[in-house]
Specification:
The strands form three sheets. A six-stranded mixed β-sheet has the order 6-7-8-3-9-10, with helices on both faces. Strands 2-1-4-5 form a four-stranded antiparallel β-sheet, with helices on one face. It has a four-stranded antiparallel β-sheet with strand order 12-13-11-14, sandwiched between helices. The protein has two domains: 2-220, Rossmann fold (3-Layer(aba) Sandwich), CATH 3.40.50.300; 226-293, Alpha-Beta Plaits (2-Layer Sandwich), CATH 3.30.70. It has 310 residues and is an alpha/beta fold. A hairpin with a 2-residue loop joins strand 4 and strand 5. Helix 3 (91-101) crosses helix 4 (106-119). Helix content is 35%, strand content 27%. The chain has helices at residues 40-47, 70-73, 91-101, 106-119, 135-147, 165-182, 193-199, 217-221, 239-246, 272-282, 296-304, and strands spanning 2-11, 14-24, 29-33, 55-60, 63-64, 76-79, 153-157, 185-190, 202-207, 210-216, 227-233, 253-256, 260-266, 288-292.
């Protein structure tokens, strides 16, 4: 359905996207994963024909979007990272306004508005002024605007940023339902590993403008098949304990959080006894040391040496 070929974008001395190649098949949910500043928003702006690339091509149904963007624009829905609504209008008025931009009118516009309000769970708030909405409700309405014309492809650029867990779960369930019931193709960008694991059929991982991994969830996790992740938990960390872990030559990657340390080690290495010994030497009290099933977070740590949200 969509193909990016050697797509690049340069701003003066900064190369925000570097020769990225990816494809999206009709009917799938594809995740574009990466930390803030990875180039995700720049890449999808080029994909949506909102930004001209420095080099490379965007193809929709095997034809270049750069030469003729209209066929893609007719079938695309865009959920931007920043809320794009008129806050002095009601939810219903926003949908009517954007619906007319999509050339919907009369009974068709009224019908689509009703359907979308129900899908995003805002029917009871249709007459409420948007500026009084919570962040989660605004995000849901933002998605509703993009769905009005029943796009074949919907692009969601970090649609759950800055909202409460309940609204976040509602949005994720809505995306899943749209894909299953409407067969809508979705490109979903995020820096939350758990969202992408829940939603996506295939995943691309972007870091510093480079595409560093792609495949199904299992294929990407197989990248670290020769290694394993261990989770060390404690209420607090002794500086000497952390320093000795970081200096251990058997540990290839380490990520320290407030109450959990994740270490990546070769699969054949038994680090349990070494971790316990370091804890005893440094007076570190541990709550647990467990083997972890590999996650996308572990893959990112393996590939870049840092956590996704660093």
């Amino acid at each position: 359905m969509i193909e990016l070929v050697d797509l690049s974008k340069r701003y003066k001395q900064t190369e925000a996207v570097k020769k990225v190649n990816l494809f999206i098949e009709r009917g799938e949910i594809v995740g574009l994963l990466g930390p803030n500043g990875a180039g995700k928003s720049t890449l999808i702006s080029m994909l949506a024909s909102l930004l001209e690339p420095t080099s490379g091509d965007v193809r929709f149904q095997k034809k270049s979007v750069l030469r003729n963007p209209q066929p893609l624009r007719k079938v695309i829905g865009m959920v931007p990272q920043d809320i794009a609504l008129y806050e002095d209008l009601t939810a219903e008025e926003n949908l009517h306004f954007f619906g007319r931009i999509y050339r919907l009118k009369g009974k068709e516009l009224k019908k689509k508005t009703e359907e979308v309000l129900e899908q995003i769970g805002l029917t009871e708030h249709r007459k409420d002024i948007v500026k009084r909405f919570s962040g989660g409700m605004k995000r849901r309405l933002n998605i509703g605007v993009a769905m009005l014309h029943e796009p074949e492809l919907i692009i969601m650029d970090e649609p759950t940023v800055g909202i409460d867990p309940q609204s976040r779960n509602y949005i994720l369930e809505t995306v899943k339902r749209l894909n299953e019931e409407k067969k809508m193709t979705v490109l979903y960008t995020s820096h939350y590993m758990e969202e992408v694991e829940f939603l996506c059929d295939r995943i691309y991982i972007l870091d510093k403008g480079n595409l560093i991994a792609s495949g199904t969830k299992d294929e990407i996790k197989d990248i670290i098949s020769l290694e394993r992740a261990l989770s060390i938990k404690a209420d607090r960390w002794e500086n000497e304990f952390v320093t000795k872990l970081k200096g251990n030559p058997l540990i290839s990657r380490i990520h320290v959080e407030e109450k959990e340390i994740t270490v990546i080690v070769p699969r054949e290495v038994n680090m349990f006894s070494a971790i316990i010994q370091i804890a005893e030497e440094t007076g570190q009290e541990l709550n647990s040391v467990n083997r972890k099933d590999p996650t996308l977070e572990d893959v990112f740590l393996h590939l870049t040496g840092r956590a996704l949200r660093d």
